[in-house]
Amino acid sequence: MANAFFSDLLSTISERGRTLLRRVGSFDDRQDASGLIELCEALLSGRGEASGTAMAREVLDRYHHLDQPERLAFFETLARNYGPDPEKLAQAIKAWRARPGDDDASDLHYASEPRRQELIRRLNRAPGGTAELVAMRADLLDVLKGNKARDLGALDRDIVHLLSSWFNRGFLVLRRIDWSSPANILEKIIRYEAVHQIRDWDDLRRRIDPVDRRCYAFFHPTLIDEPLIFVEVALTEAIPGAIAPLLSEDRQPVPIDRARTAVFYSISNTQRGLGGISFGSFLIKQVAEELQREFPRLENFVTLSPVPGLMQWLKEGSDVTVNDEGRALLGQLDTPDWPGNAELAAQLRSIVEPLTAYYFLKARTPKGRLIDSVARFHLGNGASLERINWLGDLSPKALRESAGIMVNYLYRLEDIEKNHEAYVNQDEIAASSSVKRLLKNEGRRFLDMRPP
After folding, report:
1. Angstrom distance (rounded) from CA 263 to CA 245
2. In the prediction, which pLDDT does 23 show?
3. 305 classed as catalytic
4. How confident is the model at residue 150 (pLDDT cuts 50, 70, 90)?
5. Residue 82 and residue 114: Cα distance in Å, rounded?
6. Which has the higher per-residue pLDDT, 320 or 422?
7. From residue 289, how far is each of 167, 228, 239, 302 by CA, in Å?
8. pLDDT at 24 (0 to 100)
9. One of 378, 402, 433, 434 is an active-site residue; which one?
10. Domains and CATH numbers, the chain
11. pLDDT tens digit sequence for 83-138
């Protein structure tokens, strides 16, 4: 109610300011990047609160009317001409070198701030400005993807810097999503699910309504009905190795008094414009704490996660050599319906499982990072690699991306900090003995790998 009141009040102030500005002919009607930049300059020059709010709203409205080339021109101008003031920065550097101290360091800090950061702050004052800027960042990511040679990285870093502050964990609110949640939010859960597609309303209800199911999401006060990230949870008796039983239409709910494991089986980010700003670690840890308070008998907090980059690595991996026999076997992964051939599946398991263990424990990108983005996320959060599950997901997408492999990451609350520090500082992967043993099994006869 309070948020709605202040939003309405701000919109009223903005509209009155826009009416005033139009009366005095303050707006240039050009609907192109040049006209928009002129309006941005006027916004930065400083006006009253009402006119400044109105002008910010006008900038955002005009931005929507730009086509792709004009948006690129707008972004390039912000990147090229809205950096720090060179003269002020040079003077601040000279002053600090002459007499290093806190005051001069503070002056240097403010002198080095790009003008575009203040522009973005002022745009954020417009009604709905935060959501508009998140959407603008998504547009910028599209431009960056299609124009890699363009020097827009500084602009993107400045936007991320501000969004990271505005979407600080302290501003986020954890809410449980259940069947009584507003329909518009439930529709977004269906639309944004990125791991295991929700087919229809009945499928959604099976995931959030039964006594052994939970769904939680982070919300931000300025995006009241927009979940930023959400996690779907299944309460089970044991750690699961396959996704199908969890999502089965005819499954029987687990009695709560027998549940000992909370399974985070799907985590979905919803706002592309917030890419690179991580909420997932906070979400998982807070949900684990919520569940432990509600169900004190829970013993295990695990994920059931995909391995989206595994098949590409199996085909292209350069830091492990597979002999001719092994390469011929891996070629059988392209055979239609190979999981239904028990003998072939067993042969493939003998090589794919140890290769998967190597993929997590040894393989790295040229920059020295883990290849798998999901692994980087969970291991960086302090989880450990608990189990590799053969044929954990038989969906066409999973077979295409990961040969059906799924993994369990274990969040043991007392080990999270230790695992996180070891991963970040020593590049150590916390893994169970069963995963490590896979590097030593008979499948190594197909491989030429560095010793574990």
Report:
1. 12
2. 41
3. yes
4. low
5. 6
6. 422
7. 21, 20, 18, 13
8. 41
9. 378
10. 2-166 (1.20.140.90), 170-303 (3.40.630.180), 305-448 (3.40.630.150)
11. 998 888 898 888 888 888 777 788 888 888 999 999 999 999 999 999 999 999 99
pLDDT at 29: 59
- Over the chain, what HEC string results? CHHHHHHHHHHHHHHHHHHHHHHCCCCCCCCCHHHHHHHHHHHHHCCCHHHHHHHHHHHHHHHHCCCHHHHHHHHHHHHHHCCCCHHHHHHHHHHHHHCCCHHHHHHHHHHCCCHHHHHHHHHCCCCCHHHHHHHHHHHHHHHHHHCCCCCCHHHHHHHHHHHHHHCCHHHCEEEECCCCCCHHHHHHHHHHCCCCCCCCHHHHHHHHCCCCEEEEEEEECCECCCCCEEEEEEEECCCCCCCHHHHCCCCCCCCHHHCCEEEEEEEEECCHHHCCCCCHHHHHHHHHHHHHHHCCCCCEEEECEECCCHHHHHHHCCCCEECHHHHHHHHHHHCCCHHHCHHHHHHHHHHHHHHHHHHHHCCCCCCCCCCCHHHHHHHHCCCEEEEEECCCCCCHHHHHHHCCCEEEEECCHHHHHHHHHHHHHHCCCCECHHHHHHHHCHHHHHEECCCC
For the question of residue 420 being annotated catalytic, the response is no
Q: CA–CA separation, 169 vs 286, rounded Å? A: 11
CB-facing half-sphere around the CA of 37: CA atoms within 13 A: 17
Q: How confident is the model at residue 47 (pLDDT cuts 50, 70, 90)?
A: low
Q: Which of 51, 305, 384, 402 is catalytic?
A: 305
Residue 161 pLDDT > 70: yes
Q: Is residue 301 over pLDDT 60?
A: yes
pLDDT at 28 over 70: no
Residue 11 has pLDDT above 90, yes or no: no
